[in-house]
Each structure stands twice: as C-alpha cells, then as structure tokens.
Amino acid sequence: MSHKSFGLLIGWTLLIAISLMWNLRELDKSSLNNAAAVARASLAKDIGIRDWVASHGGVYVQPSAHTQPNPYLKVSDRDVTTSTGMKLTLMNPAFVLREVQEDSNRSKLDLSHLTSLKLLNPNNKPDPWEIKALKSFEQGNKERMEIAYIGNETYLRLMQPLPVKADCLRCHAVQGYKVGDIRGGIGASVKMRPFIERQSQRSFQLGLTHGLIWLAGFIGLAVMFVRENMALAGRVQTEIKLIELNTTLLESQRIAGLGSYILDIPSGIWESSEVMDQIFGIDQRYQHTVDSWLALIHPEDRAMMNNHLLNDVFAAGKSFDKEYRIIRFNDQASRWLHGLGKLEFDEQGRVLKMRGSIQDVTERVEATSAIYQLAYYDTLTRLPNRRLSFDKLKAAIDQSSEMQCYGAVLLLGLDNFKAVNDMLGHEYGDALLIEAAARMKLCVSDKDAVGRMGGDAFMVLLEGLDSDIEHASRKAAEIAEGIRRALAALYRLSNKEYASSASIGVSLYRGAALSASALLKHSEMAMYKAKESGRDAVRFFDTVMQVSIETHAALEADLRRAVPEQQLQLHYQLQVDSEKRPVGAEALVRWMHPTRGMVSPVQFIPLAEESSLIIEVGDWVMVTACRQLAVWAAAEHSKHLTLAINVSARQFKQPDFVAKVKNLIHAHGLDASRLKIELTESVVLSDVAEVISKMHALKALRVRLSMDDFGTGYSSLSYLKQLPLDQIKIDQSFVRDMTSDQNDAVMVQTIIDLGKNFHLNVIAEGVETEAQVSLLKLYGCMAYQGYLFSKPVPIEQFETLLTHQMNA
C-alpha cells in the first residue's frame, strides 16, 4: 500500500470517528431536551389547574380525613354551611394543587412540588436547589433546570416562577404581594430512565451504522487502489494523446490567426510560434529583437506602443493588452493586431519574461469601423450624421465654457433642392449633395466640423472664434459668406451645369447657457429668415426673431383652446344674384379671444394650417354651418339659401372627410344641394386623382362644389374639364381693378365666358362698387359677393339683413 493510500484510509477512519462522536453528543442533547419537554408539559397542566381554581375564588369541598380545613388560609368565608346543612371548607389554589399532586404521587417519591420563600404553609418548604431557583426568579430568570439523583433514580428537575395575579390577592394580599410579583415557583421532576434507555438503543444503532459506512468506504478505497494501478498503465497512452491534441491546438491557432511568443526582457530577444511569424510576414531568419518588432509596427502607432511597453507594462509591472497596427514585412500590408502578455518575475521582483499571444483582428476592426460609419456618418456624403453632429455640438459647448470663447452653429438649407430631384432625378440630387459637402469642407478649418442633418440640411460647427462677441460674429459671418459663395457657384452634374444656392442661419454660443437643441433651433429660425428674405442669404439669430417665434407659439397655444372653450364664431357674408336677391352666404370663421379680442383670420388661419389645428377648426365650421342650414331650412324666407364653407387641403385629405359630410347631412336632415364646399387650386393640385375621386363622392351626395380664387393658380384650365364643379369664384384681385385696368377686365370676362362654356355658375367676390356690378352684369356674371352688399357679420345681424333684403 502506498503512502497516499494509507493516508486516505487514516483520514476516512478519523472522519467516521468524528461523525460518530458528534452524533452521540447530539443524541445526548436530544434526550435531555425531550425530558425537559415532558417536565414543561407537566408544569403547564399544574399551572392550568391552579389558574382555574384561582379564577373561581377557590373550591369548596366537604371536610374529610384527607381534606381537612386549611389552617393557614386566613379568610372569613373559609368554612360555610349550605341551606341543607352541609358543611363545606374552602380550598385555595395552592392547597388544591398540592392535594392533586399528593393523590397522583402517593405510590412514588414527591416528584412535583409547589413552594415559595414566603410560605403560608410550612409543608411547602423549599429544598436548597429550590431556594436557588426561587432567588434566580426574583432576578428575572424564567426557568431553572438540573439533573439530580433522587433515591436510586436519575431525574430531570425543572422549575418555573409563579407570578401573582389579581385572583391570588384574596389569599396572599396579607403577605404584601402585588399583581406581577413572583410569589414562588412550581417544579416538576421527570425520570430519565426511559430516555436513557432509548438513548442507549440509538447509540448502538449509530455505532453499527457508522461501522458499516466505514466498511463501505474501506472497500471503495481498496477498489480505488486497484484502479490507480490500472491508470498508471494508461498514462503513456494519455501522453501520446496530449501530443496529438497539442498538434491540433497549433493548427487551430493557425486557422484563428493566433500566434504565441516568449520575450526575454534582459536580452530583448523573443521567440515566436510559426503562426506569429506568418502574421508578421517573417520567418526565423528575421532578427527577433524588440527593436525589430518595433520596426514592424505602423509608423503612426510606433511611438505610442514603445511608450506603452516601457511605462505602462514593464515599469508598472502590469499585463500587456493592446490593439495596434503593423506593416506586414513580406507584402507591406497594414494589419490590425491584438496583443496579450503576462509578465514573469524573479524572487527580487525583477521582470524576467513576458509570455503572450498575438491575433490578427483586421476583419473585426474593419467590421467595427463599418458599423461605426453606418451609425455616425452619412452614407452619401461621408459627413457626420445628425447624431454625431449633435454630440459634437454638445462637446463644443462644454469646451467653450472652459475656454470662454465664442463659437457658432451654421444651419444650411440648399435652395430649391426638391426641384433638382423632381426635374433631374435623385441621381443628380445626390451628386449635388456630395459636391456641396465637399465645397463646405474646403471653407472651414480642420478644427471645425461639417455634418449632414438630413435631406438638404447641413450643419457647420465653428469653434474657438474669439472671446469678443463682435469679433466672433465677424469671423462667423465671413465664413458663412464664404460658404454661401462657394455653394452659389455653378455645379457640373453629369456634364450638365446647374445653378444652386443656400440659405444659412447662424447662431453664436459660449458656455452652457443654451442647450444644443436650443442652439440648433435658433439657427433653424435664422435659416428660415434667410429663405424668407429671398434665399441665397446669411441671417443671424436675434432676440427680435425669438420674440416673434414666442408670440407665434403663444398664439398657437391659445388657438388650441379656442374650439373647446367656444371662442370661435361663424360670420356670414351675403351672396346675391344679378338682381341683388339673396341666394346664399359664405360662412367665414372668426376668433373672439377672451383677452386679445377679435383675432384676424390673417393671423390664425395660416397658423392653423401649419399644424393639425386646421382639421379641428374645419370640423367645427362644418358642424356649425350644417346646424345653421337646418335652421334656415325650417323657415320659409330662408329655405332656398345655400351656404358655402371653405375646406383646407389638409382637411380635405382626411380619409373620413366624405363620411363626415354624409353623417352631418343625415344628422340634420339637410337638402345636400344647399351645402356648398369651396376648394382652392392648392387642394386640387396636391393629388389630382384622389381629389377628383372625393369630389365625385360628394357630388353623389348632391353637395355643390365651388373653386375658390379661380385664376390665381397655374393649372386651373388644364384640370377644369376633369373636375365635377358647380361653380367658379372670380378672385377679388381681378374684380378690384377691373373698371380701371383693361387686363383685369379681360381676365374677368374670360373667366365668365369659360364658366358659361363649361356650364358652370360664376360668382365674383370682392364687389365693392356699383360700377363693378354693372360691368360684371354686362359680361354675364351670375352671382355677387362683397362689401357692397354686406360685410361678414354674426348670424343675428345677418338675419336682420336678410329680412331687410327680402322686404326691399
């Protein structure tokens, strides 16, 4: 048997012995705990009897030889006689409990005892152990227990305190006790013989079990010894397999591009694996020194790597973990490597060697770079995209706080870029964007940044202009103007010349007073100001512009409350025929603001059209107008009137627009031919096919359709024959000067003739003089609307006007 085998056997034997001793000790504790549980149960029973007797004020029994009157009970009603002459004596709780204990222990030793340090009955005198227990109760202990030998038996003695309760004071008040005091104790003694016998049986079982376990372990060790000898014979075969695995590992490293090396620090000589030589493009003839290794590193990374090895690795005693580039020796290809190395030290802590690996990670680095390019750069222009540009702006703001130097954010929009895409195609549009990006980069320094924000929008970030705001503004203006001129030069797109321009908004910054989002918003406002000024211009953001924007925003916020707070009103402008008889009205929305007063439609209608509010306002107009048509239909003098309402392009494009009109007609029981919807040319031209389809659907409901502001657009004549119109309205710009401008007069006459030829009703708006009426009648105009007949007025005034017109 070998020393190892003998040691295992000794260890196993000690383990079994320790387990047996621990279990025997636990068994001894268990026997003691079980005996204590029996004693506590006995005490609980006795205390229960005592408490029951005390709660009933004691128990009256007939005196007998065994139950003589208690001479120590000093109460007036100890002895009584019943109405039948029966004599009874009172037994207090302690007396009852003692009698019960004596009856239950007559044939045994006195194994249960009630006692106290202040006795009423001398027979309850405590023994020395009980005296110690009672004194410990007075100090706060809740229980006392010990093993004692009484006669020839071993007992567990256990005692608990008896606190004074209110029921106890009847007998014990004379002793000076109060409720809560410890009056004495009650003890119980339990024979240990049954528990010791069970413990002996269990001890035998434990000994037998542990012996069997030891024997099983011994057999297992014997088997192990045999197998160990058999394993020794197989080690040679295992070593052969390890050699094969090592060969496989080397092949795997070659496939993974993972080479290994050992660098001897004092000599600077390194040994390398075949795979590592392949990665560097060298062979064993190449001089394997630190200097020759540094010579292979990419020139841009060489100084960094030399410093990293000397200071961060060798001097600091840390591991080597770095990605760097090399120029491969045999083909001069640039490759990315990931180097790992762990240092080895001598007993004095000096660096001796570094062992590590080298892996070619070029594909992974290039893939990561490609992902980064996709995430942060525009794929068309190769400029930073909106996300990266925004991050650069936030960093520039922080930098300006430290340097206390002004910078500028330029937001550029290429003018009429959509026309390039629409007329020439997206290929030309992309070429224009690429050329514009290249021109912008030539106009700024290396420290500045150009980014594409999306579409035809670009951002130029200028940093470190000047600490003086005037000088910074001039520099920003000069750069912006240079960019504007560069972008205004002719473009050659696929051998075609194309002229373009840019509108540029500029906003200065210094410190974090404004967020990056706010700065971009300011530059955007300024850019739109540049576009409004005629385009191909540079505009700086100023506070006046900000006030205008804030006013615009406040008005929009108020308009959002106009419909729910019932601030909108409909005014009605009379429409008459050639005999000046009322034929209808146009419903025009007005806004009575609670504090601003009457807000002009010129202010709030464009605002509503910029947002989705025009839909909410338009729906309110439609509902209110239909309600008024229903009122007119119920009156004889007004049931013939038509009511025209204007519908915006956005409202008309709603998928459920026709359904809404149909529901309102049915809900109010209207004659649909009395409802006239006026559309502008912008509505029609937005999507001709869809608009014509909806117009036919409305015509199917018998709703009338009118084209508003006819003649002011570009395509009315070309689409007129396709549109199911009932009426065209001559724009007031032609009517206004028709009596003094021959061109306007010819235009009006042409429109009227055109309407007649297409069998359309023609109405002129903006009629203000009798001379205009006369000329319109001469040309054959059929209906009129304007201040000559009535201004737009509330419904009450309109009803009065209507009555006056009908009676005239």
What does this structure look like?
With 808 residues, this protein is α+β, with helices and mostly antiparallel strands. The protein is 50% helix and 22% strand. The chain contains 26 helices and 28 strands. It has an 8-stranded mixed β-barrel, surrounded by 4 helices.
**Number of DSSP helices?**
26
Structural class: alpha+beta
Helical proportion?
40-55%
Largest sheet: 8 strands, mixed, barrel
- Biggest sheet, strands in spatial order? 20-21-23-24-25-26-27-28
Q: What is the mean pLDDT?
A: 86
Cα end-to-end separation: 139 Å
For the secondary structure, the number of strands is: 28
Low-confidence stretches: 106-110
Taken as a percent bin, the fraction of beta residues is 15-25%
Identify the overall geometry: flat
Radius of gyration: 54 Å
Feature tags:
808 residues; five-stranded antiparallel sheet; 26 helices; 50% helix; 22% strand; flat
Concise description?
The chain is built from 26 helices and 28 strands. With 808 residues, the protein is an alpha+beta fold.
Write the layout of secondary structure elements.
Layout: H1 3-55, E1 59-61, E2 79-81, E3 87-91, H2 93-104, E4 112-115, H3 128-138, E5 144-150, E6 153-163, H4 169-172, E7 182-191, H5 193-256, E8 258-264, E9 269-272, H6 274-280, H7 290-296, H8 299-315, E10 320-327, E11 334-345, E12 351-360, H9 362-376, H10 386-403, E13 406-414, H11 417-424, H12 426-442, E14 449-454, E15 457-466, H13 469-488, E16 491-493, E17 496-498, E18 502-509, H14 516-532, E19 538-540, H15 543-562, E20 568-577, E21 582-593, E22 597-599, H16 601-610, H17 613-633, E23 642-646, H18 649-652, H19 657-668, E24 675-679, H20 681-686, H21 688-700, E25 704-710, H22 716-720, E26 727-730, H23 732-736, H24 742-757, E27 761-765, H25 770-779, E28 783-785, H26 795-807
Parallel strand pairs: 18-19, 21-23, 23-24, 24-25, 25-26, 26-27, 27-28
Antiparallel strand pairs: 1-3, 2-3, 4-7, 5-6, 6-7, 8-9, 8-12, 10-11, 11-12, 13-15, 13-18, 14-15, 16-17, 20-21, 20-28, 21-22
